[in-house]
Amino acid sequence: DAGVIQSPRHEVTEMGQEVTLRCKPISGHNSLFWYRQTMMRGLELLIYFNNNVPIDDSGMPEDRFSAKMPNASFSTLKIQPSEPRDSAVYFCASSFAHSPGGYTFGSGTRLTVV
Amino acid sequence: DAKTTQPNSMESNEEEPVHLPCNHSTISGTDYIHWYRQLPSQGPEYVIHGLTSNVNNRMASLAIAEDRKSSTLILHRATLRDAAVYYCILRPALGGGSNYKLTFGKGTLLTVNP
After folding, report:
1. Shortest distance, CA B15 to any CA of chain A (angstroms)
2. CA A28 to chain centre
3. For B85-110, what is each residue's pLDDT tens digit?
4. How far apart are CA B40 and CA B72, in angstroms?
5. Is B43 in contact with A107 (Cβ distance < 8 A)?
6. How far apart are CA A26 and CA B28, in angstroms?
7. Taking a C-beta distance cutoff of 8 angstroms, is the pair B63, B69 a contact?
8. Smallest CA–CA distance from B95 into chain A, residue
9. Pick from B42, B46, B106: CB nearest A42
10. Distance from CA of B114 to the nearest CA of A (A)
11. DSSP code, position B100
12. How far is B45 from chain A (nearest CA, A)?
């Protein structure tokens, strides 16, 4: 298995532009998570999907952020409009729900908003 | 969420064992103890988890105190590739309201000297 695949690896955009981050979870995993990592705040959970349904989006910072999971093999995190404070590394992770085992994280997307 | 306490940093020499401590005095009876690590410029990587008994896998060993208020991640022979931030996380058991959540703290930065 290729693991959790995220794209793009790096994204540089201008303030006000729309940004879409993509994630392909491990086949068979039915839980998907989006995390954000910054130096100041560390790793923060943004949103959690179970069987393609958003279960907890309490970590989404504001309405400019939205996430979708149209099917079991694809998820997107969209920021519109983007702001410089959104600059961070965004990680996607997947796992089997109802399993005490670990999550598998992707390599992340480094977003820079100028 | 139950909290964990880890040293900010530790140092080791290559090919020597490393014992990474974690205190979790407020752990509940059904919390799993998870360890992840994050190598530079990569996503977090699952290392090991346990509930009550000590656990071994190809990456590391997890020693859990009898009262479960502390645990130690053991790397038997450190290599340069083991230099990373190590996170100790408590994950509520299945059936809890937030059993899916992994809440990351600041972790321990492990430096391995050649």
Report:
1. 27
2. 18
3. 999 999 887 654 455 778 899 999 99
4. 22
5. yes
6. 31
7. no
8. A98
9. B106
10. 27
11. T
12. 7
